Amino acid sequence: xxxxxxxxxxxxxxxxxxxxxxxxxxxxxxxxxxxxxxxxxxxxxxxxxxxxxxxxxxxxxxxxxxxxxxxxxxxxxxxxxxxxxxxxxxxxxxxxxxxxxxxxxxxxxxxxxxxxxxxxxxxxxxxxxxxxxxxxxxxxxxxxxxxxxxxxxxxxxxxxxxxxxxxxxxxxxxxxxxxxxxxxxxxxxxxxxxxxxxxxxxxxxxxxxxxxxxxxxxxxxxxxxxxxxxxxxxxxxxxxxxxxxxxxxxxxxxxxxxxxxxxxxxxxxxxxxxxxxxxxxxxxxxxxxxxxxxxxxxxxxxxxxxxxxxxxxxxxxxxxxxxxxxxxxxxxxxxxxxxxxxxxxxxxxxxxxxxxxxxxx
Length: 361
Fold this sequence. Notes:
By secondary structure, the chain is mainly alpha-helical. The protein has helices at residues 12-15, 20-30, 39-64, 79-104, 111-133, 154-164, 168-187, 192-209, 211-223, 225-229, 238-241, 245-271, 280-292, 296-305, 307-333, 346-349, 352-360, and strands spanning 75-77, 138-141, 149-153.
């Protein structure tokens, strides 16, 4: 990714802290090569994923009771394209808060700090995205211009279906059901993307407001790294480990919303039933075992960047959706999408009855 021209003030601030070219090249080095397939097989895979994405629309509407305007067709991408898209999302997310933090400084960042520091941060960001690029099956990104974009990472879909030894057609539709559910969630809540963006930017802004204190918390994290390597101590991600108690509360609110979104998508993709995905029970069982069955290095990386916490989001969110639906029905659950006030609070995501009492009385 090329750096912008010097006169581009829109992203000048964030470029002082992150070298996007270094991030892209680092991600390219870290990202593993995908499974080898013929050109003909690759073309068939791309077409089938597009067809599955289109087919998922009606199934998600039937199971969820939600209907959203159709967006652009799914993008079937390689790992490198997924990295490029997410670098753009990070840029969009960080630009205003980094610019505001730099504006608050009495003196500009020293040139040497900008040069060296931005490269270091670029390596860190590229390493994380490169690690994730070999694992993400799909993603709905609601933060770009327009109605959002749904991406399916073709080599990862093939890799996982081969590892699990599942029926490829069933697995591809199953993955598309999850991502289509995310598209619908944001489609029926025009306010949700901006709500999340505001909350996350606020959290990042808090972290940048006091660089000295953040450095102290980061030092504490590094001192505890041997405990993490041995499997002891916290399994929270890097961001969680450098926060004040107040910032943890803000992150808890964002995490509750993410748990809802991920858990709801998991419930929908499973409840379409065997009449749509004949081997859905087998896929879920094998996929669930895969989520926990990683090697030592992989587990360490997942804990440091917070992916273990993300796995709990799926479980907590799915439990919330099922218990609320059991109590007040599907339409009663769907009240969660009516306003920001109806989103589950951190305590409610693990206590669905609390949400039912607050929203339904």
